[in-house]
Amino acid sequence: MTSFNDPGMGSFVENSPENQFEEEFQQNPFQEEGLEIDQAELDALEESSPDANIQNIKTLQPIDKKIIDWKWKPVPIARHQVSGSYETLQSGWKLILRVDVDGTSNLRMASFDFFRVGSTTSYWGSFIMKNPMVSYTSTKATITGSFTGTKSMWANRAKIEIPRNHIFVARAPAKVTMLNNSTQGAIYTCAFKSQYFRTLQLETDVEQGTTLFGSYNTGTYSNPGPTRTLNLVSAFQEAGIQMNYTGSNNYINTSEAGSDSRWTESEMHASMVKHFSVYKNSPQWAVWLFAARRAVSNTLLGIMFDYKSSNKPHRQGAAVFQDTLASYFSGNNYTRNQLFTYVHELGHAFNLLHSWDKSRPDSLSWMNYPWGYDNRNGSGQFWANFTFAFDTGELEHLRHGYYNSVVMGGNDWAQGAGLEVPHRHIEDLTADIHEDNSGLRLEIVPIKSSYALGEPVVVEIKLRSRLKDDQRVNAHIHPKYEQVRIGIMKPNGQVMNYEPIGHNCVAAKDAVLTDEKDTLYASAYIGYGRDGFYFDAPGIYKIKGAYRTPDGSVIQSEDVKIRVKSPLNAQEDAIADSYFHDDVGMLFYLMGSDSPSLQNGNDLLKEVSEKHAKNPLSIYADFILGINESMTYKIVDPESQKLQVRKRDLGQATSHLDKVFSESAGDKGIDNITLNWAYRQLADGMLKEGDDKAAVQLMKSMEATFKKKKLKASVIETIKSQINSLLANR
User: Fold this and answer.
1) How far apart are CA 663 and CA 669, in angstroms?
2) How far is the C-alpha of 703 from the C-alpha of 682, rounded, in Å?
3) Is 0.90 surpassed by the pTM of this model?
């Protein structure tokens, strides 16, 4: 019997599962290790043969006495291993057990999840046994050890007993005895379910004009691993995860990506909701993989796009951009990178972080970047040594991670992402660099030296060459690409690493710094990220950056200080309250969204824009509202399941952004990089709505604004080039 409130408590009774288990084990007709047949049995067999009385058959040769005297020896019959998944429903508790103690890739672990079952089924908790004591004989496996879990329970240890049946008999059930030290509690008999630890449904849809990946022979290029043909399903089977196709496949029209035929996260999410045949708004073992052509970014190879608060629940969908892959790779190398990107992105759906996010930048894993590994270890070294496998820590997470930390639609992206503590890259920021021969300088430049409480904190990131000779660098210097890390020391001394909400899986973007164009620029809003708000109290903050060079070395910026001021009046206090709402923080991070889950944030921004229009802090609300109105937004109606498109409102967009442009014409307002982008975003919307004249006039205004700012000649030339490129689309 078990307790309704605690699945570990229980007592032994005559008709308990333990008695049933022992009876079944004792009655197993294949319990003996082998079968012995002695001479008497051989004689009996011979006498009972229909041919035994046949006489005088010339072809029948006398039996050699050596054969007659030979005694048959035991013939061992192979037995099942015990690793895999088991399941039972007893006394209102559903127990899912995973045993991982034999086989070539066993981790010597066991884990289990409890669900409370009645008129509804609810998740109760998950538990893991690491390095238990294992007694493994030819007929039985016994696993005993303590466990840790997501919540406390009466039991703190478990004993798992599994008979090893012969291979031509069904796998035996597992008996799980819950223990509090040595005191016995509830007993569960779990039927064998699968040789795999977890099983999920996979649906693969494809954009018109491209095709799904098929398979790749790992021996095509030399590597130390075994040669085999891998596809997406078999790659995860090797990790102990079974994927079953839903049987539903769709060709998705490119029109769902908008007029530019390039996919955004919101557009992919809307298409997933529309086409994914088993989609639901709750945790489930099901994932959608979309083979698309191109994303908005020219270097984005793939993405697990369900990581934003506007797209909850998280981690249900991923995409691979195959035209972009084809622009970097060809032939067999393209096929190899297709496989790699498919597995990598679905790894994120299981809540696996990148290798370097877990202090393993040199891991030969599906979750690393080949080019990032090569930067540290030499050109071509990743593929020369990669065996097409996850590393041990990732296998632990995939097979035994807590249910909500792994299941699609469970925890938010990166929450509980792995059994080890995620790497926060503090060492990049604190490393004691004795000598710097990189020829590069990293600068983190706050837009302002002091900010009002709640005001979005934006920094410009500059990577400069200090040499006359050309220097090749990775141009991805925005923190979301992970080449640049930013550390923040709060007024109370707490040190935090700024973590973006999500990471984009991109190819390296090479750039050459020359004597004339010696600097790369990026603008980053660092006020809100994975850990919430970073500048949430008045005081002095220190900010420092670190950049990883193509050879894996680290260069650091100088520390810079900013001051966050206390509100000066009731109006500033009210604006701070609005800007510190999580929905508003996410809207600042996304630079606008019409997601229903962020409606409260949009309402707060509208209130600031209207009620506090004369306050300088209101331009941030106008910026987000204006950018949002300059874009279309797609969402699937939950009742009709039809794709709905909210059209641009260029009148509203212009009204909001004109205020931003005016306030930012001098040294105040938003930073120059963001201002440049806002001008071009509005002009692009005008062009797409057929208002070429307004777009041309806006671009003239933009050029004049930046000329008045007296920027470097090379920067002005870049701005002119951006304008010409945009207007060429007319």
Assistant:
1) 5
2) 14
3) no
